[in-house]
Amino acid sequence: MKCYICAEQGKDTDAVAICIVCGMGVCMDHAIREEIEKWEGGYPFPAKKLKLSIPRILCPPCYNAMKS
Question: What pLDDT does residue 1 have?
Answer without folding.
Answer: 96
